[in-house]
Specification:
Length: 88
């Protein structure tokens, strides 16, 4: 059985608000991950489609234009993610 002693380093979890630097004696705010862009867009798209279906406005939309707009959106997202990876 391995017992922890105070001189051993502790694990810093993501839910910690402040990370203390023992060497410098300073504290910096902990980084939190941002929202997932793909999940955010997919969720907002699902909400918009549901509202349009409930209001009856979805019946007057030409499916070909939906396909074109979806293709432009996916292409733009792929291009944006490619450029974003190169900057980091």
């Amino acid at each position: 059985m391995d017992e922890k002693t105070p001189d051993q380093p502790y694990t810093i979890h993501r839910d910690v608000d402040v990370v203390h630097d023992q060497d410098a004696g300073e504290s910096a705010p902990a980084t939190r991950p941002g929202p997932d862009p793909l999940g955010l867009v997919a969720g907002l798209t699902a909400i918009v489609i549901a509202v349009l279906a409930l209001t009856g406005a979805l019946a007057s939309v030409d499916p070909r234009w939906v396909l074109v707009i979806g293709a432009v959106g996916v292409g733009s997202a792929v291009l944006w993610m490619t450029l974003r990876r190169r900057q980091t």
